[in-house]
Amino acid sequence: MSRIRAKNQEKIIEVASLLFAEKGYAATTTAEIALRAEIPKPNLYYYFSSKDKLYRAVLESVTQPLLQASLPIEQLEDPQEALTQYIRTKLRISRDHAAASKTFAAEVMAGAPHLPSDIAEALMDQSKMMLSKFDRWIGQGWMDPVPVKHLMFMLWSSTQTYADFNWQICQVSGKYALEDDDFKDAETFLVGLVLKGCGVKTLF
Fold this sequence. Notes:
11 helices
């Protein structure tokens, strides 16, 4: 039963992600989510007792991977390896959680009115950690003295754009959907750009 429950929850979150991304929080109804997920509306409330809790689950489906993505920066001393792993993971999140990423982006652009405070605090703590680590690498001479806030903003935007602006990227690329090779090419380019642009030193 637990496997069935998890599978149904995953399906509901996937459908809700698509609808929240398309229509926004206010315009999306639980009745519409249940209809698209092909389940009776009472069943939806069995898994998620309110629209707010379902919205939180959608946000967590992308913010939890985003929070995990910075672990290499937190744990590794080598900036080259840490930044490479971070960029690679962020691109995979854009590939695998595109709808939830769009929902999160829309939430932030609206001023985060429905973003749970604990998620907002965790994201802020992550940002402070990253900025501190960048400053440490600069102080140790392991990378050039770049403006660390702008480095972080650039890392966010250059990786998340493949989810949040997927339509535009596909239009320019002449594709219906991006393929794995597109994300690999993006990783190679972005890693090279960041490491070279920041003067990251090879330590090991």
